[in-house]
Structures are given as C-alpha cells and as structure tokens.
C-alpha cells in the first residue's frame, strides 16, 4: 500500500462545483444540492484501501454526530474502476449499504472532480464553510493502520466544532495519509 499524503490545497479556495451519480440512490447529485448550512465535508474514499477501511466506522459516527447541526458529509470515489473493479459503482453501493453510510457515496468516473479538488489519497478530507470556502484539508486524526492510535476523528471534529461556534478553524493542519488515488492511464 502506497503511503501518499494530501496535497494541502491552499485554504480559502472555493469548492469546485460538481454533479455526480450517487451509487446508492442512482440519482445525480450536485454540490449545490448537498451543501450544509454550516459546513460541507467532502471525503475522497474508496472501497479497497486499508486506510479507508481503518477509519470507515468513524466516518459513519462523525456523520451521525453532526447530522442535525447543519453539517453535510459527502463521500466521493475517483478510483479507476477498470483497473480496480472493487472500487466500481456496484461495489460502492454494497459497501455503503453494509457500512450504513448516512451520506451519499458518489462516483467520479472521469476523475475530474478529484483533480479539481486536488485530492491525492484515500482518505482525503476537505471542509468548506457555509460559503463553500475551504477552511480545512488534511487528516481525520493521527490514527493509521497498525500505529495503535485510536480512531477518534479528532482533527475533523475540532475543525467542525470551531465552525459551529463561529470561530476560525486553526490553520496548522496535518496532511492525511493513505493510498494514492488510482488514476486512469492516459
């Protein structure tokens, strides 16, 4: 498993718009439809990555914990399903249902959305405020497979709690680390 860090896109960037298919509902969903009143958490994940499998239960817990607070979670997989069939839309739907994802799990077949967000790894996290301005990018927390640190979502929770209090999010942020996004061959 390749250990790839986040790019750490500059804060203040506007969220690139998108319309992608939700693998569970089959509907085309846009960022404008999905955005939260307080914040929107965009998570680039996939099915096969051990880093994502490691944090999956916490992603579900986080979304439940913040669901009624104006914070919307959105998961996107941009991996090349031709080379990684486990990350295809049908398998995404199965994982979403099995894990009980309380958020849409969108498929970025063209990989254009991942490129627009400068996503580099799975998982890669981006938090946008109510104006869809980037206020956080980086890790969920310091836990990684095999490092014996509990998965708590601490870094994301801290950023979201600041937004809920109307406070600025700390700019000292640590990159996420995970499997590289599986780009299609050109």
Number of domains: 1
Q: What is the structural class?
A: alpha+beta
Strand tally is 10
- From the N-terminal CA to the C-terminal CA, the straight-line distance is 22 Å
SSE string, helices as H and strands as E: EEEHEHEHEHEEEHE
Shape type: globular
Rg over CA atoms: 15 Å
- Beta fraction of the residues? 15-25%
Overall pLDDT confidence? 95
CATH overall fold name: Glutaredoxin
Looking at the overall shape, the CATH architecture is: 3-Layer(aba) Sandwich
Estimate the helix proportion, in percent: 25-40%
Question: Regarding CATH, which class?
Answer: Alpha Beta
Strand order of the largest sheet: 6-5-4-8-9
User: How many strands, what sense, and barrel or not for the largest sheet?
Assistant: 5 strands, mixed
Low-confidence stretches: none
CATH superfamily: Glutaredoxin
User: What's the total helix number?
Assistant: 5
Q: How would you summarize what this structure contains?
A:
26% of the residues lie in helices and 22% in strands. The protein is an alpha+beta fold and 186 residues long. The protein has a single domain, classed as Glutaredoxin (3-Layer(aba) Sandwich), CATH 3.40.30.
Task: Supply database-style keywords.
186 residues, alpha+beta, Glutaredoxin, five-stranded mixed sheet, three-stranded antiparallel sheet, 5 helices, 26% helix
Explained architecture:
This protein is α+β, with helices and mostly antiparallel strands and 186 residues long. It has a single domain (4-180), classed as Glutaredoxin, CATH 3.40.30.10. The chain is 26% helix and 22% strand. It contains five helices and ten strands. The strands form three sheets. Strands 6-5-4-8-9 form a five-stranded mixed sheet. Strands 1-10-7 form a three-stranded antiparallel sheet. The longest helix is centred in the N-terminal third of the chain and has 17 residues, at 50-66. The two termini are 22 Å apart. The model has no long low-confidence stretch (mean pLDDT 95).
């Amino acid at each position: 498993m390749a250990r790839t860090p986040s790019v750490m896109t500059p804060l203040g960037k506007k969220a690139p718009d998108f319309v992608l298919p939700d693998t569970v509902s089959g509907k085309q969903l846009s960022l404008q439809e999905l955005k939260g009143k307080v914040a929107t958490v965009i998570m680039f994940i996939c099915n096969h990555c051990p880093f994502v499998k490691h944090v999956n239960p916490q992603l579900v817990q986080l979304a439940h914990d913040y669901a009624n607070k104006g914070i919307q979670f959105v998961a996107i997989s941009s991996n090349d399903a031709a080379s990684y069939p486990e990350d295809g839309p049908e398998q995404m739907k199965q994982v979403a249902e099995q894990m009980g994802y309380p958020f849409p799990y969108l498929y970025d077949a063209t990989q254009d959305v991942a490129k627009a967000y400068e996503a580099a790894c799975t998982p890669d996290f981006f938090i946008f405020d109510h104006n869809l301005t980037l206020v956080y990018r980086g890790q969920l927390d310091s836990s990684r497979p095999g490092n014996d640190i509990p998965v708590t979502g601490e870094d994301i929770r801290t950023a979201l709690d600041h937004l809920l209090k109307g406070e600025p999010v700390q700019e000292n942020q640590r990159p996420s680390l995970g499997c590289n996004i599986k780009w299609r061959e050109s």
